[in-house]
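Components:
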Amino acid sequence: MSSFTLPEPAARRATRRGSRPGRRSSATPLAEKAIEWSLLACGLVSILTTLGILAVLLVEAVGFFEQVSLADFLGDTEWTPLFADKHFGIWPLVAGTFLTTGIATLVAVPFGLLAAIYLSEFAPQRARRVLKPALEVLAGVPTIVYGYFALVVVTPMLQEVFPSLAGFNALSAGLVMGIMIIPMVSSLSEDALHAVPMALREASWGLGAGRLVTIFKVVLPAAMSGIVASIILAVSRAVGETMIVAIAAGQQPRLTLDPTVPVETMTSYIVQVSMGDTPTGTLEYRTIFAVGVTLFALTLLMNVLSRRFVKRFRYGASR
Amino acid sequence: MSVGVPEIRDGASIRRRGRNLGERAFVALSLLAIAIPLLILVGLVAHTLSDALGRIDWDFIVGYPSRRASAAGILPALVGSLWLIGLTALIALPLGVGAAVWLEEYGGRSRLAGFIEVNIANLAGVPSIIYGLLGLGLFVRFLGLDRSVLAGALTLSLLVMPIVIMATREALRTVPGHLREAAAALGATRWQVIRQVVLPMSLPGILTGSILSISRAIGETAPLIVVGALTYMTFLPQDPGDPFTALPIQIYNWVSRPQEAFLVNAAAGIMVLLVTMLTLNSAAILLRNRLQRRIRR
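Structure:
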């Protein structure tokens, strides 16, 4: 580190590298500006990405809604764009998405919260250093691998308990997805718990409250906005998750909350159409963009909401 | 009930100790909440490994897909994934690092910087399949790249860019401000400070963070399906304009077939995928250690 507290003289570095000694002194104001602008251009790519997403989704979705009325899209209860008798009601896909997401959330919230409480309130430093990255691994496994697990391992195991379970079902996809999003809940929740000032805990102990009482009556309420943010983020991740549900939950859009039958989510519908040979410009092709817009709006809403909550706990902690 | 004051050295030690039965039970429960998911993951990987072991051999790695499960290989998918990851690194690294440098070193608290920042945070939350739709509409159709490796890599680049930017910013923030000031006081211009002080010091962090984020792209399936990766390919892509397939696509193809034998192929494919990811990650960590040694010297 010491050699970088001061930059070496330019000449020496240049000779050591044996290359173009004149280059380092060429920092003309013009070149400086050019560099700044090109770096800014890199940053602007991210804004172009957002605009690109909006443009692509909206252009194709507008084409879709010219042929299918919004009333049908939101009013019909059947989704059969690939059949002869076409219906374009989004609700079966929404129901499939919420069913799998709901199951995943039911798994991830208790596991994630308990993990967060342990890591923040009980774990010795050494355990924290090992367990935190270990939990993160859960979110790093490719989703296609989780999909395989759900279909090949979890569903047959569940079928031994519930013989009526279909080969494709929302239950096993949701359970496996829940495991995947545990780290989303645990790591942001742990940050929130950690940000609760020590003085609050000490005050509670001083009043004679035990440690569990302190955690549940003082620390958790104080960190609540951060915890809510983490849950919203995890839910949004589950809503946008694709491969697990595409592989294990089936491809039959139906308006049901029964976790034992095949369903279809918004994401797995997009996969289903993409795997087939649907020609560009047809109505079937445009349906995936209409579904995409719905999915995008839903996740964006949740992400914005989640950041609101995060902000609140950050400000709350600094007060 | 009293809190054991005498032994307290820091906040952590007072937080740590479980005292009565209720607390112990709660700690045990929380430990289970961490252990169970991890054990499930280990069990699932072990299960897959045992399925895959009989199938993985050299012929599988260098073979081409086949309608007979026992003759099928994974070479086109492996090569396709390496193409994708290479191109993605070439595109996403400079763009992501550039954007991060601008945000950290030039943007400051300006409104534009704030806007870009919020925008990146939003992009990081966009489901990957939406990026697939973007790639399909923009690269495949509008720019006419067709269903090529390049279109796939561009899509993945946009997908990982927010993560690369965040990792790079983290690394840039570890460079103490007084080094920038010292360099500036010696007459270095802004870019000279960045080029000769900030970047060399943060390079290990930038590289590790970026390689880790890019290695995640190798497991991405949904956007590639939407962009139009082939599911059955009997030749290798030769240049960025060629059609392609990728490891996760091949695995998906095998998983979605009803025959048991193809599921075994999928398990073997998953092992190849996981080993490829692990290799990339270890390479990132080795690289960081080497660079860190060089800098510390």
